[in-house]
Amino acid sequence: MQNTTQSLMINDQVSRWQVYTAQEALYSSAVKHIEEAARNAIAGHGKFSIVLAGGSTPKSIYQLLPKIDTDWSKWHVFYGDDRCLPPEHEERNSLMAHEAWLKHVAIPSSQIHDIPAERGPVEAAHAYNQTLAAVGEFDLVLLGLGEDGHTASLFPGHTWDDTQSAVPVFGAPKPPPERVSLTAARLSQSREVIFFVTGAGKQEAVDNWRRGEPIPASLIKPKNGVDVYIFGVNL
């Protein structure tokens, strides 16, 4: 059952904070949100583009998505980031999403756009920039929040070229050090953005964000603001 909802203006950015008393309620609400976003996008412009996050909470949500009522042939799947590891490595976001969800539904393979991170950060970022060159505004971006305030693979203390859609990441503070990430500017080019934030370890990052400190997550600024789904963190 949803506990509280708050809307805040932080550094000229609207954020809607939805706190859940049970993880299952967060998962259910997220699935409904995704299903509705897909329905509206397909009705409005004939397709649905979604950017996926890695992590345990997104995985639990992805496992529920095969049950929704949607036209899978209209879905186009992208990734916010991935690790520079072999495609079959268990820590690849693309493998997790495939095993939890994508292999169970009829999205055409040509519409699932993995980051070719196994090619190394520079070459993979270049390739993904080409993939995204013809892609306009996303319909929905899913993101997580790290204990240090990072999101996708945009880490505190790092800089990146926001004129690009995808950038190479070196020296990530958590392994593996080499990754590819969409930039804050490109992630902001979406009709909707949802952050999933679960666990007491995220408390400091949430507090910093709500105080207006410039953590990477706060740099995601879509025109319609962001939704933050929370469990296990106090507001």
TrEMBL record:
Q: Which SUPFAM superfamilies match?
A: NagB/RpiA/CoA transferase-like
Q: In which pathway does it act?
A: Carbohydrate degradation; pentose phosphate pathway; D-ribulose 5-phosphate from D-glucose 6-phosphate (oxidative stage): step 2/3
Q: Which EC class is this protein assigned?
A: hydrolase
- Domain Glucosamine/galactosamine-6-phosphate isomerase, which positions? 23-225
Reaction(s) catalysed by this chain, per the record, are:
6-phospho-D-glucono-1,5-lactone + H2O = 6-phospho-D-gluconate + H(+)
Asked if the record carries the keyword Hydrolase, the reply is yes
Stored Gene3D superfamilies: 3.40.50.1360
Q: Which UniProt keywords apply?
A: Hydrolase
Biological-process GO terms, alphabetical? carbohydrate metabolic process; pentose-phosphate shunt
Q: Which domain of life is it from?
A: Bacteria
* Enzyme Commission number, as recorded: 3.1.1.31
Transmembrane ranges, per UniProt, are none
Q: Which GO terms describe its molecular function?
A: 6-phosphogluconolactonase activity
Which Pfam families would you find in this protein's record? Glucosamine_iso
Tell me which family the UniProt entry assigns to this protein: Belongs to the glucosamine/galactosamine-6-phosphate isomerase family. 6-phosphogluconolactonase subfamily.
What the entry lists under NCBIfam families is as follows:
pgl (TIGR01198)
- Function, please? Hydrolysis of 6-phosphogluconolactone to 6-phosphogluconate.
Under what name is this protein listed? 6-phosphogluconolactonase
Q: Which organism is it from?
A: Methylobacillus flagellatus (strain ATCC 51484 / DSM 6875 / VKM B-1610 / KT)
Gene symbol?
pgl
